[in-house]
């Protein structure tokens, strides 16, 4: 089975940094994805980690530790438009199915 | 140009009706998906097709039937709609089963 945990909500100030943690206990692992979803819109792909370490993409970075079953998404220089839900998803190695966490709603305040 | 488009965007219907949601992608991808997102925002895979072949079929009622007439289209037909079917249904596509998925804008289905 798949068990993916992430905090429900986080609030941060414009210009600040926020770190969204994701822990997983899955029957197999073939990569971890982060998606951003604004209210009422489609999820959009942010990042992908399959090896341990940090992947940086502009203001967003994602980290993975496979031995700990742990990932985080780091959002730097927060902007109001970053207010959204952030979804962590783990891919199954057998059928490549993505299992999503419940998402973390980030609210950026002025 | 819309990459993954699904219609309709909103669908309100009565219990017991049969309805279809259509999805088309113009990205040239081989793999397409249907996801369901419930009121608690959990996004769950329902079906996946690769090159028109069904590769993922999660435990969903057999009232739900996907149809892929070609690689660019994956439609979802739902028979005998129930109140619990109310959710947002997302279509998505990816280059192959391993690649990141691109999602459509979603269809908000409300069964009354």
Explain what you see.
The complex is a heterodimer of chains A (110) and B (112). Chain A has 110 residues and is mostly beta strands. Chain A has strands at residues 2-5, 9-13, 18-26, 32-37, 44-49, 53-57, 60-65, 70-75, 84-91, 98-100, 104-109. In chain A, strands 2, 4, 5, 9, 10 and 11 form a 6-stranded mixed beta sheet that branches. The model of chain A has no long low-confidence stretch (mean pLDDT 95). Chain B has 112 residues and is mainly β. Chain B has strands spanning 4-7, 10-13, 19-25, 31-37, 43-50, 53-57, 64-70, 73-78, 87-94, 102-103, 107-111. In chain B, the strands form 2 sheets. In chain B, strands 2, 4, 5, 6, 9, 10 and 11 form a 7-stranded mixed beta sheet that branches. A 4-stranded antiparallel beta sheet of chain B has the order 1-3-8-7, with no helix packed on it. In chain B, a hairpin with a 2-residue loop joins β5 and β6. The radius of gyration of chain B is 13 Å and the shape is globular. Chain B starts with a strand and ends with a strand. The model of chain B has no long low-confidence stretch (mean pLDDT 94). Classes of the chains: A mainly beta (110), B mainly beta (112). The interface between A and B is medium-sized, with 21 and 21 residues.
């Amino acid at each position: 089975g798949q068990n993916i945990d992430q905090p429900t909500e986080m609030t941060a100030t414009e210009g600040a940094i926020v770190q969204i943690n994701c822990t997983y206990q899955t029957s197999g692992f073939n990569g971890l994805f982060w998606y951003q979803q604004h209210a009422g819109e489609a999820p959009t792909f942010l990042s992908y980690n399959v090896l341990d370490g940090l992947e940086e993409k502009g203001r967003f970075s994602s980290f993975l530790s496979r031995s700990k079953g742990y990932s985080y998404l780091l959002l730097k220089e927060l902007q109001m438009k970053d207010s959204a839900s952030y979804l962590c998803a783990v891919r199954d190695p057998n059928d490549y199915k993505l299992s999503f966490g419940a998402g973390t709603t980030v609210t950026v305040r002025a | 140009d819309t990459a993954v488009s699904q219609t309709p965007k909103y669908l309100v219907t009565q219990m017991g009706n049969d309805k279809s949601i259509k999805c088309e992608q113009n990205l040239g991808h081989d793999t397409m998906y249907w996801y369901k997102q419930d009121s608690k925002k959990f996004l769950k895979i329902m079906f996946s097709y690769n090159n028109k072949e069904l590769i993922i079929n999660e435990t969903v009622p057999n009232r739900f039937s996907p149809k892929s007439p070609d690689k660019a289209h994956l439609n979802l037909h739902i028979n005998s709609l129930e109140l619990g079917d109310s959710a947002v249904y997302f279509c998505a596509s990816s280059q192959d089963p391993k690649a990141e998925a691109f999602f459509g804008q979603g269809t908000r289905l409300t069964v009354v």
